[in-house]
Design goal:
The protein is an alpha+beta fold. It contains 10 helices and 11 strands. A hairpin with a 2-residue loop joins strand 3 (23-28) and strand 4. The longest helix is centred in the middle third of the chain and has 29 residues, at 101-129.
Length: 343
Amino acid sequence: MKRLLNTLYVTSPDRYLSLDGENVVVLSEGEEVGRVPLHNLEAIVTLGFAGASPALMGACAKRNVALSFLSRSGRFLARVSGECRGNVLLRKKQYFLSEDTEGRLDIAKSFITGKLFNGRWVLERATRDHAMRVDVERLKLVSGRLKNAMEAVQTCGSMETLRGIEGEAASLYFSVFDELILQQKETFSFQGRNRRPPLDEINALLSFTYTLLANMTASALETVGLDPYVGFLHTDRPGRASLALDLMEELRPVYADRFVLSLINKRIVSPSGFFRKENGAVIMDDDTRKAVLSAWQTRKQETIKHPFLEVKVEWGMAAYTQALLLARYIRGDLDAYPPFMWK
């Protein structure tokens, strides 16, 4: 089993990353401000503008350390990838399935089934744990409609129908998301999903967290030998990691959405940690971004029992275990791909 290592997050805009022997060196105006052994890292995420040295990028590619560049708002810009080391036979089967109408539909159904199941679980848990603070009847109504959507997924016969079911279900789920905010509701109010740019604090947190999850999922797929850019649900597009977007669908509710809710409900973030730009985009300040990343690292290290494998793993390994199961299905070792269905 793959071992969960650390992720180095560089949030200051003027930091330059370089390589010194086997160490990542963080520089500010030519002065060293940090040093981390490369062998302790599985990923580096930088939100600065100064960049990284070619030597460090080469070392990361050689050692399969994911090096990702994000904008100050958390929007994905680029990532460094090394030579393709995946099993060529596995990738050929992946490419074949991606062009097979029935094969890709079966896998896409599994992704969406997991997403709907986990979305229902988030709502059901809120009615169980906070019955006196949420509109139980409203949440139960949406939960029931998500259950109906899960049944519709099993019988749908085309990708267009599946995407329609998923889109309607996502609208239903987010229509009651505001009910799950139990603290700081005077500022953290959710009226609907928006992005590019996010127009309120909650959407800023969701978009940033989804980017972190997408990077983690893409790295997991590469680790098991799959091509993260060739998907089944999301259409192929130059520069888009479609399979990573596919695989993260089932993890969004229980991993990313619950994480964002915990940031607000536990008061890890506060309204003063956000500011609005001239174009209306709401952005986290540096201190809030650091607090979010610290909490994200803590969450990754929490141990859970995998619902299918029935072994204890860290939350940070969830994307890897699902990538591994997907690879086993594509190879023919499993009869079906088992989505991550958490309780």
